[in-house]
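To assess whether the prediction recovers the assembly geometry, we first specified each molecular entity separately, as shown.
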Amino acid sequence: MNKVLPALLGVALASCFALPSQAQDLTGTLKKIKETGQITVAHRESSIPFSYLDDKQQPIGYSMDICAKVVDAVKTELKMPNLKVVYQPVTSSNRIPLLQNGTIDIECGSTTNSVERQKLVAFGPTYFRIQVTAAVKKSSNINSLADLNGKNISTTSGTTAVPLLKAYEKTKNVDVKEIYGKDHAESFLLLAEDRVVAFVMDDILLAGQIANSRSPGDYKILNESLRAEPYGPMIRKDDPQFKALLDKTLTALYKSPEMERIYNKWYMSPIPPKGVNLNFPMTPQLKADFAAPNDKGV
Amino acid sequence: MNPAILLEQVPDGDGTWLMSLASGLQYTLVVAAFAWIIAFVLGSILGVMRTTENKWAVRLGNAYVELFRNIPLIVQFFVWYFVLPGLVPAVKAWVVSLDPTTHQFVTAIVCLGLFTAARISEQVRSGIQALPRGQRMAGYAMGLTQAQTYQYVLLPVAYRIVIPPMTSELMNLIKNTAVAFSIGLVELFFRTREMGELTFRYFEAFAAATLTYVIIAMLANRIMAFIERRIAIPGFISGGVGGGH
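The predicted structure of the complete assembly is given in tokenized form:
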């Protein structure tokens, strides 16, 4: 008997690691997708160009294109060519709870892969790397973050920019008054209306807001950074099968020439809804991320 | 669920999450208090106007109520905070010169005060109209003017009748302050969301906020019930018997 038990345990363990050849072997998200016949992809509404609604209210964007490849891989893996894809809009505040409670299966937006968040969720390989900085009006004579001392600035509540800004204020002895917008469009509106002198946020999101504004030529983004942050697709934690599929699919994609095509489509060409070109060339940091795909958080 | 998170430090802030929530609660209470003063005074005036015999006063009062009661509160916040300064350059110049927190604070008070005034006015009007028409007639027959009739005959009883619905309005007002998060006012709900977003401990954050809102609303209810009992006229309507509602 004493010899049988370890053997049984061995078999049980081995079956846990076996590849999912049949539906019964599936676990986590893949099992859920197989059983419900649908995958729920979460998108943002105004995170240009990652994930946003076009003029027909359809979710589009760089992150959505990358996630489409993941959805294709799921279809192949589960042999479900007719898998139903449901799109669910999320916000900075509800994306993690909705992922945890199973409402969404993968979030394709502009979510920073942070060590803090990794305690609650898992991330796929980094698909973008941003700098947290400020957008100002060219007419404002503000050229560095230090120039913001004593001024009113806007930022979006619930983003990582908020604690970063507070830390910067403390270490550099800079005093700014923050006005919190509930989304990026609202924070940018405060800048556009001259209610504040700067909007502190991720550089690419600032570029997106500027490109879609009434007069993009009026704004500039400061060449200074509070912190660089990796963006990645977000999935549930402790879901090894789905994570492995996600990693495998995206690693292959990043190393293929297809990736440069997707990048140029969203950052170097006119994009909906207004046909504006963000003109945001790939940074050396992001090139390094694509050469060696990783899911390291900050 | 681990309430110990409330005693953890806010990242790059001062103090614990509990203190952060408490500072939000201060804004919630102060905004509600000032908004209640505006709502009560303006609502009473409008409510009385709508029961007078002056056609234009009635129409003006009705128009106000329809306007403010039919627009969602969050839209009203947006209009006061974003649209109005955007439309009138003088207002914009003024609000930019203000401290942002002061601006949000004043906007929240005005917006909630005007919104709640429409609802108070409905209560006051219904209180006055619930009185037998003979009371107004009796006032006039005794030689009182219209103003005196309101002051000495109609309003003292009408206000007593509407204390229970007024209590509901007060509780609604306290809860409605949460909408002020949409203009960035750092009240209780804003702090709760912030705590959820930065710690991902939504359950603890919202449990603490829920408990706090329930306690404040219940306190408001008990205070109003106490007032109702104290000012009840013995043997008149039901005041003082059940208390509360």
